[in-house]
Amino acid sequence: MAGTPHTAQTASRRIASGIAGWLPAVVFTGGLIALWEILAHVLDVEPWLLPAPSEIAQELGESFSLHMRHARITLQEIAIGFSLAAILGIALAAAISWSKVIERSLYPIVIASQTIPIITLAPLLLVWVGPEMTSKVIVVVLISFFPVVVSLVDGLKSADVEMANMMRTLGASRVQLMTKLRMPAALPYLFAGLKVAAVTSVIGAVVGEWVGGSGGLGWLMKVSGPQFRTDRVFAAIFVLSVAAVLLFLLVLAAERWALRHHGPRTR
């Protein structure tokens, strides 16, 4: 019981430090929003051209159920696509680092796949698999798996060579080298790729819905633009931004848990 006050003080200091760390970003963002609001009224900008933040907030409040209904569709696509991209990326990276033959066969294809603009591939997926959720999930996977693969491949190659040689001398198998040395060393790289993929997965879902959807926030933005509902477009963008930030923070929390034994510098 004697350590309880000290523990509470430590937790309080961590919370205060965390709040202080985010304070500049909050103040800067709030200042930009306030400046946007002032200029929109001072310059008398038409709402259909560029709505003020207050008008966007009003639209979000009045049409909250509409945005949440479409957000549910988009979040399902993001969750499924991001999960599949993570699994596919980890499997590909492990295979590439496992064998030189696989690396020379697959890695150039993985890199070449990113030279194809996803906006040109999405209509083909619409024709091949239909307008249902599957085509959007595939777009999310295609746009999200690449940073996972590249980051993890680099991480698996970063393992200490001398440590690997010593483990081989002691009779370690390739599987043991992978699970005991290379994968733990590659965890920071893996989460770096996952954090990028978390953001790009949102972009992939919007692209898929924009090209051939019948629901979701991307589709809502697409149909609201020609109707001059710019406030609705910005409200949908705000919801998407919140979803991307929350997914990023979720990956960040998983990273901190997974790297809790890697030392403060790595964390």
CATH homologous superfamily placement of the largest domain: MetI-like
CATH architecture designation of the largest domain = Orthogonal Bundle
DSSP helix count? 10
Poorly predicted ranges (pLDDT <50, ≥5 residues)? Answer: none
Shape, per Cα inertia axes: flat
Helix content bin: over 70%
Got a strand count?
Answer: 0
Gyration radius over CA: 23 Å
CATH class of the largest domain: Mainly Alpha
Q: N- to C-terminal separation?
A: 30 Å
By CATH, the topology of the largest domain is MetI-like fold
Rounded mean pLDDT is: 86
Q: Strand percentage, roughly?
A: under 5%
The main β sheet shows up as: none
Order of helices and strands: HHHHHHHHHH
Instruction: Provide the number of structural domains.
Output: 2
Structural class: mainly alpha
